[in-house]
Design brief:
The complex is a heterotrimer of chains A (368), B (637) and C (374). Chain A is built from 14 helices and five strands. Chain A has 368 residues and is of the alpha/beta class. A four-stranded mixed β-sheet of chain A has the order 2-1-3-4. In chain A, helix 2 packs across helix 9 and helix 7 (168-198) packs antiparallel against helix 13 (318-332). Chain B starts with 7 loop residues before the first strand and ends with a helix. Chain C is of the alpha/beta class and 374 residues long. Helices cover 67% and strands 9% of the residues of chain C. Chain C contains 15 helices and five strands. Chain C has helices spanning 2-8, 10-25, 27-47, 66-77, 90-98, 112-117, 133-154, 156-161, 178-208, 211-216, 222-251, 260-284, 288-305, 327-341, 345-372; strands at 55-61, 81-86, 104-108, 122-129, 164-171. In chain C, helix 2 (10-25) packs across helix 11 and helix 9 packs antiparallel against helix 14 (327-341). The two termini of chain C are 32 Å apart. Classes of the chains: A alpha/beta (368), B alpha/beta (637), C alpha/beta (374). At the A-C interface, helix 2, helix 4, strand 4, helix 6 and strand 5 of A face helix 3, helix 5, strand 4, helix 7 and helix 8 of C.
């Protein structure tokens, strides 16, 4: 045990003494959480749209006002002489609403008044949202217009659970928390391990007759400690800036966090042990860890959207399970009954990484 | 030196290590007695490092056994301390933290770590630096800290793989004094070194080549095995004397001639015959002989002889010179005027002035961190001086392409591309200096021949052993025949034979009119310079020809031969004036103010401690004496 | 004239040849130049998709009538929702949503059919897991859309009297293929990020091994050295970029509506910008490790601020102007404009100009810093 702690203490001291590494360990995750938690969002507001009102009647004005009043759209001016499509191709607007002549007359006659909306679908998601928002506004306008008693037959009463403000921050905040805890400890662990090989200090370790378990556990313990500090900072940010709070029993989250810190440190150590070159190790972490967790874990986009042929891969991605635990802890509050399998999965994947790292290191001598 | 005949501390039987089809170590059988200093010398790629790694128990041997006090090396790891060639310190940790970490890994009791750590730090004069971060230590101190770390678990065997490469003479001497005192306490020490003056201080020396031990014995035995004597020929015109001797050929029982700044070392089997032959040759050429005396050979002679016997002779290939700079001779080539460089509050180079002329070899000496490399970088325009002006070829714009075309530069770090094959490296450097195709081909051929790498020309440069790389880098730096040449530690880590051929070439270039600025930690090499400047703490403290410097030295040098030289050093040396006593091979150099009283005093002290004096005579100062005295008088480096 | 002369000189040729040889020998670089675009394009193009389809839905059907079953059928038919299971109570449904088994739920009240028959408005409760705001918003729109058409079927008269009818037309990407959008952004990310990562490691290598001194001591000028270092990288990344474009065109079937010259020009600028960025980073860091980590610091903000994956309009207002300083933003705008929308240089020139400015500034900084780095 003494060797484990000696190893851990040495690692922590080294991290603290190197400003670049320390920034990497503590400051950068916080910065990223703030930046990406804020910047990444798919729900647009104040989309610039151009209105081409070819009618000019009172009704058409009123209809346009409905669009003006919405938070989602921002009507921008566009010269009548110009083709409306140019507003889209020049990125001046994301959609063009075209109100045909006789719009007001048709309405007064009680006839259908079609309006056209040209939507820039080069960003399909935003286009879909735009169409949805526009349809909602039109529907609300129609309901107002319709005489009483002629309401539609089926009404939807929609309840948005867990995040009633439909605030993206609350969704991506915890996601970025997971990303931070995945990326940086892995990187630190891989660097610390690869450095020993690159600087040849590993020889000194070999000579000291410390066992592979002691050596690896010492390293992992140190990285777990750093993870804990990082988590403390990030959780504080989540609770304050992102305004989330624990939705239920926090113990599954705490246990999962400890196991996840182990899992991530073991992964980094495994990479560093296999690639005793810091630059290559960073690249491997970037490609392996970052890309996998970023893409296959459901962090950014739902796992359901991944093609079936690849979806099974996400079962092996450690981040997948931790993300669910974190979102559950902060948003849903499902507790142990919902989360125990995920916690077990994290532990299993972590042990596998540790086992591979140990296999690589177990002889504790130079390979011939 | 302790009880002989007792159990071997380190022992190998039929030890063999192969990397693929290459045999690094073959059938090695070693026996190292407890408490002795065992030196392992040999050219690059001889298999020394592999041997150390197997003894340290971290490299599985292909076959055979290695034991430490009867236990397999791998199991005995707790009893061995191992200093690798690269620093195995953690730069982010402080001195004390480094020691503690190693102690903890080796399960040394906490209190022992404390007390031993403090004791060794005090012993090495580093007690004040316990809280300093390792990356802020000088090279010499890093090396000593590594040693403390290796010692803190009180190992019984210490394995040191080239512990003093790149370490300045002052620190080297201190380091060795420490080793000797540790060995007197009963520690067994195995050490590999490229410095043969260090090997002289070992109890037993093994000469290793191509994975095998070729010679083994005490330094005295090895010297005796040569069956030859060394003749010291002191003359004003060393260059002509060397040529005259070369003309003698293999006759007159002359085995080898080595040129130094003011004398030649001639190795001869038959002293009388050789002496006669030399005298006649000198007379015929009209060269005045100042001194010609017979002396014991030194280990370097043994080493060179062994390597020649093994067929490792470095071919001397004439440099295909196309340009002559002879007409430039005597003009100023390199100038430093009030050159100063400050890094923050630290002044690395302080008001340095000198002028080097074409045809001159100028040696810049000094401890690690004295400011030599910074001075060179300012002269080359690689960094801007804080104050003062450098000039090259009488041009103050030292960065212009015109000036750079005339400069050859070999930095301290290896200066070729490790990831390119040898021939592509040479092709690049020849064409970047604008050599035409035909000349480039000729020069490349020459570099390959000079560094004996003709067959390996397509090999990736990074896979070469250090010494070869160094020769290659030197060759590529002079392909464009620059009239100005900067060489920053060109011979660091190079074996003696290769060093000779390098210096032969430097002489040749200077003879052809090139100005050469060279730094080195080998002071015997510095003897070959026309002029020498000594730097300390950024200042140029002494300057002159080697002979001038020696003549300027105050006091007298007494050379003692005693039966227990290591012990004698301890007896005679006072902590305040360490520079007064030094060990050179088996001789003791003592600098005294007055020859007669000094001699009497010293003999009395030695006799009081039961040390028998075999021989004493007043000797000439070596450059190393000058260096030590100047540096230590100025303050600890 | 001066440029031409510089191009012809022997030193520069020697330098470029050396850089080429070094790069070709670095197997890692070569592998990364092939693997990086393939993996990133495939993964991002196929895997990353914010499209909301098959939202899993649980149903509590208290009505259990043909009418209620018809409504469920209408919901599922739309392909926006996938019927996961029936639940007995609102509580059970709520639990399923709470534990993450379901994304949404619908509760059809017991008097649903009766209300319909009496032509009284019937209210159906929809529960949406809004953890993911985007999915929830789109699902909400789906629900309303499905109900609208369902209502229209139920009583055509009601529908026809609804005065305004919105006819959305999706321009440029009528199939709403999400990968078209993603790929344009990824291409920019590839060129800038892969470019800066590799150029910074290659550039810093010279310094880490100490050969930089040898190089600076040669008659070559700093500009020659840097130009020589950039040339092979530029060519390699160009090949990588072209390869990526081929994948984008033929594997993903993204239309090339506009001028290919505009895309290529922007690509070249983007590559130069990435290399300059890497070079600049290399001149301010000491080791390959530091360079790599610095690039690592830069990557996530550059990516997330670029609007390459998420719309800029979705960012907070104070952040939106910052995106102007991200070269990926401009490149993504150019590729999307030129490839998908068919916009020309007349529209896209401000983005070109921005890329040019970035490249120029970074390149100048590199040359200026290169000597100072010793």
């Amino acid at each position: 045990m003494r060797r484990v702690f000696a190893q851990a203490r040495k690692e922590v001291t080294e991290i603290i003494r190197d400003p670049l590494t320390l920034t990497l360990a503590l400051l950068l995750p916080a910065f990223l959480l703030l930046l990406m938690g804020t910047a990444i969002s798919l729900t647009v507001t104040e989309l610039p749209i151009v209105v081409q009102n070819l009618d000019g009647s009172l009704e058409s004005m009123r209809f346009v006002d409905a669009f003006r009043a919405s938070q989602t759209f921002q009507v921008v001016p566009w010269p009548v002489s110009e083709q409306p499509e140019r507003a889209l191709s020049s990125n001046a607007a994301r959609a063009v609403l075209i109100i045909p002549p006789h719009f007001g007359r048709d309405l007064l006659r009680g006839a259908n008044a079609p309006v056209q909306m040209l939507i820039d679908a080069s960003d399909p998601n935003t286009a879909q949202l735009t169409a949805g928002y526009a349809a909602e506004i039109v529907r609300a306008y129609d309901v107002n217009l319709a005489p009483a008693g002629r309401a539609p037959a089926v009404l939807a009463a929609i309840r948005l659970w867990f995040n009633p403000g439909v605030d993206s921050k609350k969704f991506y905040g915890p996601g970025m928390f997971v990303l931070g805890l995945t990326l940086f400890p892995t990187l630190l662990a891989a660097l610390a391990m690869a450095k020993e090989g690159e600087d040849k200090t590993i020889l000194q370790v070999y000579v000291s007759s410390i066992s592979a378990h002691e050596f690896l556990l010492g390293k992992i313990l140190a990285i777990m400690f750093v993870s804990a500090c990082e988590s403390a900072i990030l959780i504080t940010l989540l609770l304050t800036y992102f305004g989330v709070s624990f939705a239920g029993d926090p113990t599954p989250f705490i246990v999962a966090s400890i196991l996840y810190a182990f899992c991530v440190a073991a992964f980094g150590t495994m990479i560093g042990a296999a690639i005793p070159n810091q630059v290559a190790a960073v690249q491997a972490v970037a490609l392996g860890g970052f890309l996998l967790v970023f893409i296959l874990s459901g962090l950014l986009f739902p796992i359901d959207n991944i093609p079936v042929g690849l979806r099974w891969l996400s079962n092996f991605v450690w981040g997948t399970y931790y993300i669910e635990v974190v979102r559950d802890a902060f948003l849903q509050g499902g507790g142990w009954s919902a989360m125990w399998t995920k916690v077990l999965a994290i532990a299993a994947i972590g042990s596998a990484f540790y086992g591979i790292a140990w296999r690589n290191m177990r002889s504790m001598q130079l390979k011939s | 030196m302790s009880d002989a005949g007792s159990q071997s501390a380190v022992s190998t039987r039929d030890l063999h290590k192969a990397y693929g089809s290459v045999d690094a170590v073959r059938a090695l059988a070693l026996d190292v007695r407890a408490g002795e200093i065992f030196g392992l010398i040999g050219p690059d790629g001889a298999g020394k490092t592999s041997t150390f790694q197997m003894l340290a128990g971290i490299l599985p041997p292909t076959s055979g056994t290695a034991t430490i006090f009867g236990e397999p090396a791998r199991k005995a790891r707790m009893r061995t301390g191992y200093l690798t060639q690269t620093f195995s310190l953690y730069p982010g940790l402080s001195v004390a933290e480094n020691i503690r970490y190693v102690g903890d890994l080796r399960l040394t009791p906490r209190t022992d770590i404390e007390t031993r750590g403090r004791r060794y730090l005090e012993m090495f004069g580093m007690a004040a630096f316990a809280d300093r971060q390792a990356n802020q230590l000088s090279g010499g101190m890093k090396q000593k800290l590594s040693l403390v770390c290796a010692l803190v678990s009180e190992p019984r065997v210490l394995l040191l793989d080239e512990p003093t490469t790149g370490v300045d003479p002052v620190s080297r001497r201190e380091f060795w004094d420490t080793l000797v005192s540790l060995s007197l306490e009963g520690l067994t020490i195995l050490v590999a070194t490229p410095y043969l003056d260090e090997a002289e201080r070992c109890n037993t020396v093994a000469f290793m080549d191509r994975g095998e031990i070729k010679e083994l014995g005490t330094p005295d035995e090895l010297r005796a095995s040569l069956h030859a004597r060394r003749l010291v020929l002191r003359t004003a015109d060393v260059s002509s004397a060397q040529k005259a001797l070369a003309a003698l050929g293999k006759d007159a029982a002359i085995l080898d001639v080595q040129r130094y700044g003011d004398h030649l070392d001639v190795l001869a089997t038959d002293t009388g015959a050789a002496q006669h032959a030399i005298e006649t040759a000198m007379q015929q050429n009209g060269i005045a002989v100042e001194e010609l005396r017979a002396d014991d050979p030194i280990l370097e002679n043994v080493f060179v002889a062994s390597m020649r016997a093994a067929g490792d002779e470095v071919a001397s290939v004439p440099f295909p010179a196309r340009r002559s700079h002879r007409d430039l001779r005597g003009k100023a080539a390199i100038g430093a005027e009030r050159l100063t460089k400050r890094f923050g509050s630290f002044t690395a180079v302080d008001d340095v002035n000198f002028e080097i002329r074409y045809g001159e070899i100028y040696g810049l000496l000094g401890a690690n961190g004295a400011g030599k490399t910074t001075t060179i970088k300012m002269l080359c325009g690689l960094i801007d001086p804080s104050d003062g002006t450098p000039s090259l070829a009488q041009d103050e714009d030292v960065r212009s392409s015109r000036v750079h075309q005339q400069v050859g530069y070999m930095s301290q770090k290896f200066s070729l591309y490790d990831d390119l094959p040898i021939d592509e490296n040479l092709e690049f450097f020849s064409s970047i200096y604008g050599l035409n195709k035909e000349e480039a081909a000729q020069k490349m051929q020459w570099v390959l021949a000079f560094s004996s790498l003709e067959e390996r020309r397509h090999q990736v440069t990074g896979s070469l052993p250090g010494g070869w790389k160094q020769r290659l880098a030197f060759g590529s730096a002079i392909m464009h025949e620059p009239p100005i040449l900067f060489l920053d530690e060109p011979t660091s880590g190079v074996d003696p034979l290769a060093r000779r051929s390098l210096w032969g070439l430097i002489d040749e270039l200077a003879d052809a009119g090139a100005a050469v600025l060279v730094t080195t930690h080998y002071l015997d090499e510095a003897e070959q310079c026309n002029r020498v400047g000594l730097m300390n703490f950024g200042k140029l403290i002494v300057e002159g020809t080697p002979s001038e410097l020696k003549a300027r030295q105050k006091g007298h040098l007494l050379e003692f031969r005693v039966d227990q030289p290591q012990k004698a050093v301890g007896v005679l040396r006072s902590p305040e004036q360490q520079w007064r006593v030094a060990l050179y091979g088996n001789r003791l150099h003592v600098i005294v103010d007055d020859a007669e009283t000094g001699k009497r005093e010293t003999e009395r002290k030695l006799a009081e401690n039961g040390i028998a004096v075999r021989d004493v005579r007043e000797g000439q100062f070596s450059l190393e004496d000058v260096f030590m005295a100047s540096v230590e008088r100025e303050g600890v480096a | 004239m001066k440029m031409l002369h510089a191009l012809l000189n022997q030193r520069l040729r020697a330098l470029i040849l050396k850089e080429f040889r070094q790069m070709l020998r670095d197997r890692r670089v070569m592998a990364a130049l092939v693997i990086a675009p393939v993996i990133q394009l495939l993964v991002f193009g196929y895997v990353l998709s914010p499209t909301v389809t098959n939202v899993s839905m649980g149903i509590v059907d208290e009505s259990a009538t043909p009418e209620s079953r018809e409504l469920v059928a209408a919901l599922v038919e739309s392909r926006s929702f996938r019927l996961a299971d029936y639940y007995d109570s609102v509580n059970a449904l709520g639990n399923a949503i709470g534990t993450g088994k379901l994304d949404s739920g619908a509760v059809i009240p017991y008097d649903y059919a009766r209300d319909l028959r009496r032509e009284r408005p019937a209210t159906v409760l929809f529960l949406l897991n809004a953890t993911n705001a985007n999915t929830a918003t789109i699902a909400q729109a789906y629900v309303e859309g499905v109900l609208q058409s369902y209502n229209a079927q139920l009583s055509p008269t009601t529908a026809s009297s609804a005065a305004v009818v919105l006819q959305p037309a999706f321009l440029y990407n009528p199939g709403l293929v999400i990968s078209w959008f993603m790929l344009a952004g990824i291409l920019g990310m590839l060129l800038i990020l892969v470019g800066s990562t590799f150029s910074s490691t290659l550039m810093v290598k010279e310094r880490a091994t100490g050969t930089i001194e040898q190089l600076l001591m040669s008659p070559a000028t700093t500009t020659e050295i840097i130009v020589a270092k950039m040339t092979p990288l530029f060519l390699a990344f160009s090949v990588m970029g072209l390869f990526a474009l081929v994948l984008i065109r033929y594997l993903f079937g993204v239309p090339f509506n506009g001028s290919i010259a505009v895309v290529l020009g922007a690509g070249a600028l983007c590559i130069l910008c990435g290399i300059s960025l890497g070079t600049f980073i290399a001149t301010i860091t000491k080791t390959a490790r530091q360079a790599q980590l610095s690039v690592f610091f830069l990557n996530p903000p550059l990516t997330s601020l670029s609007g390459a994956f998420t719309p800029v309009q979705a960012m907070p207002h104070w952040l939106q102007p910052v995106t102007v300083f991200d070269p990926i933003t401009h490149f993504a705008a150019i590729t999307r404009g030129a490839l998908i929308k068919g916009s020309g240089f007349d529209v896209l020139w401000p983005d070109f100009f921005a890329l040019l400015v970035f490249t120029f500034i970074l390149f100048s900084l590199s040359v200026w810093r290169y000597r100072a780095q010793l």
